[in-house]
Amino acid sequence: MKVIYNKYFPFGKFLATNVCGIIFCRSDKGRLSVVDENHEYIHTMQQREMLYIGFLLWYCVEWLYRAVKERSFMRAYYKLYFEREAYGNERDLAYRTHRRAFGWWHQFVKRGSLLHEVGCFIGDIAAFIRKDFRWTKYLYAFILAILIIIAQTQYNIYDWLIAPGYDDGTSMLRLPAVYICMYFLVLVPTLWMHHELWRLRQWQVWAFPMFLLTIDGAGQGFHAYYKWAEECAVWHKDKYYMQLVGSFLFRSVFIVSSLCVFRWLTEGRFGLYGLRRSSKYLRVYGMIYLMLLPVFIVVSFTPQFLNFYPKMDITFYDGAMGWERWKVIGLFELCYANDFLGVESMFRGALVVGMSRWLGRRAVLPMALTYMCIHLGKPDLELCSSVIGGYMLGILAWRTRHLWGGIIIHLGIALFFELIGIIRLLAS
Predict the structure, then answer these.
(1) Whose CA is closest to 84, among 123, 39, 49?
(2) Where are the alpha helices (DSSP H) in 133-235?
């Protein structure tokens, strides 16, 4: 534990502060005692187990909350969970040897409370990353994600690699090829860096992802319903509406059929791909969604999102199929929402919960990068955030064995943008 003495930091009445395990101490206020050093080492352990950033965020948010409640920054400081653990055990010089992980949490937070659930939520993510972490692996994944973002934002890879397939009929081959290549481009180096190449000797590690991603990509690239719509529709607006609804409906059909086969091949060991009764972290997911709503509102007015949402131009499709407006909108949004349920079941369900039988926690990162690829052609911000969101939701699916968090966040965001877009169009 490194100690840096100086005349300026920390400010105010404080003798020392701990920043990522480095102690800054005011030399004009004396030197650290053994008790002070123990106090700061407790903070170092707290920071490590929360991956430093989590500690900083929690510390600041709790301090601000308590400062408003106590109307005093110093009274709030002494009531912080981190400080209560450090001050309460600083004289026990052997505390570091018998301290329980997240000791501040277990000592002061009431079990069953929302705050307790938030802490367990963060702890699960931190525990997963600590056990899964290899700096070479994460650096490799980061570089790969940056290359994908550059290829899309600068060279529009979607338009010259994927989009032409919809015109020449090869989209059912191009999309699966992109997804499968990305999946194994991440999986194989990941297993090599963890010295777990032995997992590749299991045929399921090759066969199931290829099968699932082939079906998912083929479902997304399936456009035979265009011809069916032209034959069945008597009015051009009906034809285009049937094609739009079909773009989401038929992908869901492909996904559901593949998941049924996957469930049969795995003897139903994983339930319904994470769609099981479980309330774990549901309150936290709801809280996160509400906290992100202001961000969604701001993002929904950016030029790319204004051009992308809503997915259906209401003014053009109004009166399609001879239906009232609410029926036209309702059927489309139902099919649109159903597509998200299929995507969650495929990526967080089959590719994480299902494949964890053979890959353990190594199933998460390949899924996240592949999930990023299905966002090619969408707004840049959505593309960039998809890899982070997909990775976090993958971790939580792996830990909780259910998908409700991904459904709440993923579907909630999509329907929110749809609602904002519909309101904007109807008001214009």
Answers:
(1) 39
(2) 135-155, 157, 164-168, 171-193, 203-221, 224-232
Chain segment 295-352, per-residue pLDDT in tens: 777 777 777 676 777 777 777 777 777 778 788 888 888 888 877 777 888 888 888 8
Residue 166 and residue 221 in contact, taking contact as beta carbons nearer than 8 Å:
yes
Whole-structure pTM value: 0.71
Exposed (0-12), middle (13-18) or buried (19+): which is 424, by Cβ within 10 Å? middle
- Angle, helices 282-299 vs 412-427, to 10°: value is 40
- Length of the chain in terms of residues written: 428
Distances (CA, A) of 163 to 118, 183, 251, 256: 42, 20, 17, 24
For residue 293, how far is the Cα from the chain centroid? 16
Q: How many CB atoms lie within 10 A of CB 160?
A: 9
**Is residue 177 within 8 Å of 220, Cβ to Cβ?**
no
Cβ neighbour number for residue 25 with a 10 Å cutoff: 22
Q: How far apart are the first and last CA of the chain?
A: 62
263, 277, 350, 353 from 268: Cα distances, Å: 5, 16, 11, 12
Q: E strand or H helix at 247, and its extent?
A: helix 236-265
Cβ atoms within 10 Å, residue 324: 11
